[in-house]
Amino acid sequence: MKKILLLSTIVTLAVFCQRDPYREGSRLYAVHCSNCHGENGQGLGELIPPLAQADFITQYRDELACILVNGLNDTIVVNGKTYFGQAMPANRELSDIQVTNILNFIQHSWGNPKQDFTLENVRALLSRCP
Asked: Does pTM top 0.90 for this prediction?
């Protein structure tokens, strides 16, 4: 009986994950990122850059994990527009898995390039953070 229940749970989870493999990233994004970058990654006017269809995501792909964990206090250019003066706070409490989930959610949302991060990739990138 326990084996049947376990198998049923595994099948249910597999089907659920196939429908929305980025659900955990979406949830984490809502908690840690959407207050500033917006529910749909649209940013906030002149203050906060968009994540939706942002060239920055492709150009600085290897820095994204460090930016997410350590924050950013620098002038940046996103889609030809300069953003400065508004610091992005650090999220040092995020685990490597949570960082991976958030980055993959962003990569697969709002017209972004759909380039997955693996947990191993994120760990390697985080090991090089200043």
From this structure: no
- Residue 78 has phi, psi (to 5 degrees) of -125, 125
Mean pLDDT by 10 residues, the chain (130 residues): 54 50 93 96 94 96 97 94 89 97 96 94 96
Contacts 24+ apart (CB under 8 A), 87-91: 88/36, 91/32
What distances in angstroms separate CA 26 from CA 13, 39, 73, 92, 104, one per listed residue?
17, 10, 24, 18, 9
* φ, ψ dihedrals at 22, nearest 5°: -110, 20
Q: How far apart are CA 125 and CA 58, in angstroms?
A: 15
The alpha carbon torsion through 21, 30, 36, 43 (nearest 10 deg) reads 40
- Going through 33-111 in order, the beta strands assigned E by DSSP cover 76-78, 81-83
Q: Which tens digits make up the pLDDT trace of 33-51?
A: 999 999 999 999 989 999 9
Q: Can you read off the two tokens belonging to residue 88?
A: 């992005």
The domains located in the chain, with CATH, are 24-127 (1.10.760.10)
Residues with Cβ within 8 Å of residue 12, at least 6 apart in sequence: none
